[in-house]
């Protein structure tokens, strides 16, 4: 696993800088600039000293771009003042896994910039049930280390906006992600098989999870994020595979959820798996009209397919909810629907106050074990 850091560096600039326009990129949003971006990357990556790829203001049309390492230095900055635009015809990148991908890089910072995935056409196709490509993730970091991203805006991705996969040490800050609330699978940031990822001071509104946390995520820190519309922060789905890495040490702190389907959720498939989720802290969350503010669902089984017996073996323990307050859009604001075969344990509620239509909301627990302290509303149903 490598380190990927998405940085916020100042734009002091490094001694070596490659301007994509000097290398032939056109800022007219019509001329394909893929080759110029690749040429700039190749030069920066081949530089033996720190290097910058500079993208001036303008709209640059790009097909799929693979920013590949290993590089000869570990200090590359992409300074983006302009907008990178995906092809209007969604078929061009719709069957690629991703549109822009960084792979095997170490020490890359992206400062500023807007990524426009132009996904609306594909969403319409998917919603009308036609045969459509599965869609490309807008920006993916894979097998990378020490990545810093600051002030990046991602709009209207075809599928996920940002994926962090098999990375170590990634910092994303001041990220703005936006897609319509009914766009399918447009998760904001998806993290999996990665360690030491930090997401700070960001605003995410999409049609799917704000942040989704997949198997193999450890030491994830989320702080000061505004979330909505969308499906909230979700650990899972876990337990899809029989042999699966767990999720450990996740903190989500000072998050505001507005009109989302869920607030903080952990979900696992109702079937056997070696997966687990533990040492999870949800702290200082504000819920504004959220359908399911607090939820653990261990019986996830879409379409009732391939969930024999419907009992999850994913172990969920040591999950703390601290200072969670606001309004629920449904009566049951706290729902712990855990596995009969493998009950949730060590669930802790501290200072929770959730109302539904100005009345205390309700809680529902099955197979959930734990304790509570401080003010608790709805009434604690943990055993
Ligand atoms: C948990 O993760 C945080 C970063 O999110 C890290 O600072 C801390 O050391 C980790 N704790 C353990 C016990 O690994
Ligand atoms: C799935 O199966 C359960 C239990 O057999 C049933 O109650 C539920 O309605 C089914 N759901 C769907 C979507 O078929």
Describe this structure in words.
This protein has 383 residues and is mainly β. 5% of the residues lie in helices and 54% in strands. The strands form two sheets. The protein has a 22-stranded mixed sheet that branches. An eleven-stranded parallel sheet has the order 7-10-13-16-19-21-23-25-27-29-32. A hairpin with a 2-residue loop joins strand 30 and strand 31. The structure holds 2-acetamido-2-deoxy-beta-D-glucopyranose (2 copies). One 2-acetamido-2-deoxy-beta-D-glucopyranose binds at residues 219-221, 249, 251.
Short description:
This protein is mainly beta. The protein has helices at 34-46, 120-127, and strands spanning 2-3, 6-7, 16-19, 28-32, 51-55, 59-61, 65-68, 76-80, 83-85, 98-103, 106-111, 114-116, 137-142, 145-150, 153-155, 162-165, 167-173, 176-178, 189-192, 195-205, 211-213, 218-227, 233-238, 247-258, 262-269, 276-290, 292-300, 315-328, 332-337, 344-356, 359-360, 362-366, 368-377.
The tally of helices reads 2
Rg from Cα: 21 Å
Largest sheet: 22 strands, mixed
Helix percent reads under 10%
> Shape from CA axes?
elongated
Average pLDDT score: 94
Range of strand content: over 45%
Q: Which molecules are bound in this entry?
A: 2-acetamido-2-deoxy-beta-D-glucopyranose
Number of strands: 33
| Strand-pairing-aware structural class | mainly beta
Provide the low-confidence segments as ranges: 7-11
Termini separation: 40 Å
């Amino acid at each position: 696993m490598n380190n990927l850091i998405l940085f916020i560096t100042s734009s002091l600039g490094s001694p070596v800088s490659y301007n994509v326009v000097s290398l032939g990129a056109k800022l007219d949003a019509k001329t394909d600039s893929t080759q110029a971006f690749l040429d700039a990357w190749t030069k920066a990556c081949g530089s033996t000293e720190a290097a910058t790829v500079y993208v001036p203001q303008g709209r640059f049309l790009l097909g799929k771009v693979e920013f590949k390492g290993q590089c000869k230095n570990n200090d590359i900055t992409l300074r983006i003042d302009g907008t990178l635009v995906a092809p209007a015809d969604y078929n061009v990148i719709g069957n690629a896994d991703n549109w822009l991908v960084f792979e095997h890089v170490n020490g890359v910072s992206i400062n500023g910039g807007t990524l426009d995935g132009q996904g609306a056409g594909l969403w319409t196709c998917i919603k009308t049930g036609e045969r459509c490509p599965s869609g490309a993730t807008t920006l993916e970091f894979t097998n990378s280390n020490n990545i810093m991203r600051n002030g990046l805006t991602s709009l209207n991705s075809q599928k996920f906006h940002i994926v962090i996969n098999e990375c170590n040490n990634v910092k994303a800050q001041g990220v703005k992600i936006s897609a319509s609330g009914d766009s399918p699978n447009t998760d904001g940031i998806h993290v999996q098989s990665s360690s030491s990822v930090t997401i700070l001071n960001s605003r995410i509104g999409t049609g799917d999870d704000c942040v989704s946390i997949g198997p193999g995520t450890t030491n994830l820190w989320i702080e000061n994020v505004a979330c909505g519309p969308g499906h909230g922060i979700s650990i899972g789905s876990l337990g899809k595979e029989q042999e699966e890495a767990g999720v450990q040490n996740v903190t989500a702190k000072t998050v505001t959820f507005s009109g989302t389907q869920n607030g903080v959720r952990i979900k696992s498939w109702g079937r056997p798996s070696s997966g687990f989720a533990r040492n999870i802290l949800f702290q200082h969350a504000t819920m504004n009209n959220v359908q399911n503010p607090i939820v653990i669902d261990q019986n996830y089984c879409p379409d009732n397919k391939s969930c024999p017996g419907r009992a999850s073996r994913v172990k969920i323990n040591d999950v703390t909810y601290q200072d969670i307050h606001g309004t629920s859009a449904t009566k049951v604001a706290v729902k712990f629907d855990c596995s009969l075969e493998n009950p949730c344990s060590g669930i802790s509620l501290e200072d929770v106050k959730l109302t539904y239509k100005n009345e205390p909301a309700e809680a529902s627990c099955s197979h959930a074990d734990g304790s509570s302290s401080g003010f608790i509303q709805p009434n604690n149903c943990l055993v």
